[in-house]
User: Fold this.
Amino acid sequence: MNRLVVAAALTGFLTVALGAFGAHALEGQLTAEGEAWWHTATLYALPHAAAALAISLSGRAGMLKTGGWLLVAGALIFSGTLYAMALGAPRWFGAITPIGGVLMLAGWTLAAIGGARKT
Assistant:
């Protein structure tokens, strides 16, 4: 089993489901700030899930694969804290959000380095 494929696919699934939930079930229920957080969470999570899925299907290991894991972790932390705040979690969750952003940046960095290396 390729665990990164599973994690990336589940992250993508969750992002689409939460995006639809926010657009339909939460319509008119969130503040303007909450709607913006929800939108940003969805906007960032989906391409990072897709990139991690592409990395997982490359068959490569090392830094590239580690980068894929960082993309998944970063997307879940970044978006998860924004979704939580939109639903009423304490604003201090916003202090956690940048950790997810840093993980996504690290994931892209490792993906670039790993991709530049010979297999």
Observations:
- Residues 3-116 form one domain.
